[in-house]
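Hi team,

As requested, here is the filled-out complex form for the manganese (II) ion run. I kept the field names the same as last time so the parser does not choke. Let me know if anything looks off before we queue the next batch.

— J.
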Amino acid sequence: MIITLIGGGSTFTPGIVKSIALRREELDVTEIRLFDIDKERQDKVAVVVDWILHKELECDIKLTVTTDPKTAYTDASFIFAQMRVGKYAMREQDEKIPLRHGCVGQETCGCGGMAYGMRTIFPMIEAIDDVEKYAKPDYWILNYSNPASIVSEACRRLRPNARIINICDMPIAIIDMVAAALGIENKKEIVYDYFGLNHFGWFTSIEHNGKDILTPLRKYIKENEIFLPAAYLKSNSSLAKNSKTGNRHAKGSWYYVWKGEYEIMENFPEMLPNTYLNYYLQQKEFVEHSDPDYTRANEVMDSREKNLFEGIDRYLETGELEKDVFYAGSHGDWIADLAIALKNDTKARFLVITENKGALPNMPHDAMVEVPAYVGKNGPEVIAQNPIPLFQQGLMMQQLNCEKLLVEGCIEGSYEKVLQAFTLNKTVPSMNVAKAVLDDMIVANKDYWPELK
Ligand code: NAD
Ligand code: G6P
Ligand code: MN
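And here is what came back:
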């Protein structure tokens, strides 16, 4: 059984490989292949992947590292995708250009997310076509590549029969935080209900061994005025410098979204919002506390990326791989668990991004929504829900139509539709601002975007 990682040079590759290798028996995996378009970057990451497989875990999984699609996908059963088109250099542009115009500067939300989406649609379609050509006929692509909601809408439009499931690790990271806040050791005992679009959803119930824990969580957040366990905090205004590869969602500017969870719940306490909703509900405040010259892209380049590549260089010099060079945990476990559910037909419960088809009765049939599903060998069996309240439905419709217009505009090369998408986004205060941001982004993305007429 062959698993291929697209974006083999990603900072998440070592952690994902470790999760796969730890579950090698359930996955019956014999070979892991890394595929990337940046040979130099991937060859470096492959050094640590080789160490994980053959030194740390001493398994006999073969490792193949390639930039050739045929070598990457031939007879592969699972393809885990995590490409970042334009890499961190373009993420930095996605975050900084909107901030220059007073708009939220974020990797996957608002104008930054739309720019990233327009770079990613066609490389993802190309990857799907290569996989179709070379992989096993019953392949599954499990896609983490962001912005997952725009990517999933583009796949639905352009390759409706592709065997692809789009996923996100944020709800899992939030559940990790719930467990840490409430002192629950085994987070697998936590079951939750959720609805939304990707990076745009709400938990409606959270239970531990059948007992409601959303009520004690609400109380915890209210009392602490933040949704972060004390261990993560140095003072009430900044994050402790925990180990280099500790919980990355509790580092640097991530602080503000955990604080924002408290702020949102002070007004709307019924549901637990996804952290990303802060960018849409507190857009003004998030612009105000952003540093337009040093955004999350800079934080990541100065920490996760630097730490990994410097650690690899030191390993090559000394033969010693220090701990904390890479992160392993929920992100890799989640995608490995999903592959196990598909392969072994376990019908385990996962959140997936999938075509609505009535699961949320008052959202369009063809919306790509993020909802719980039981996953077995034929893919996700989505759980139908009750109609969602007007506030959430209104927000979701605005965001959904924005994403649909963006994808349409990108496919058709229509400046007007893309401008409508930018204008419709809740992080953008006026049509004229939308146009100014878009025009700057066209220049910055000239090597990546389709031409807009
Ligand atoms: P990274 O820049 O370290 O790695 C991305 C890799 O993708 C790079 O090595 C790059 O060369 C490669 N790449 C770019 N275009 C490619 C293409 N067309 N084909 C193959 N490879 C290509 O980025 P990272 O921070 O490690 O993140 C990797 C991806 O995972 C990003 O898309 C990020 O947004 C995503 N991510 C998603 C979730 C989620 O919840 N869905 C969680 C974490 C990360
Ligand atoms: C969460 C989200 C991902 C996003 C990541 C960014 O995990 O679910 O979609 O890519 O955060 O994290 P970073 O550390 O790169 O800012
Ligand atoms: Mn995500």
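Two things worth flagging: The mean pLDDT is 96. Residues 169 and 334 are 7 Å apart (CA to CA).

Thanks,
J.
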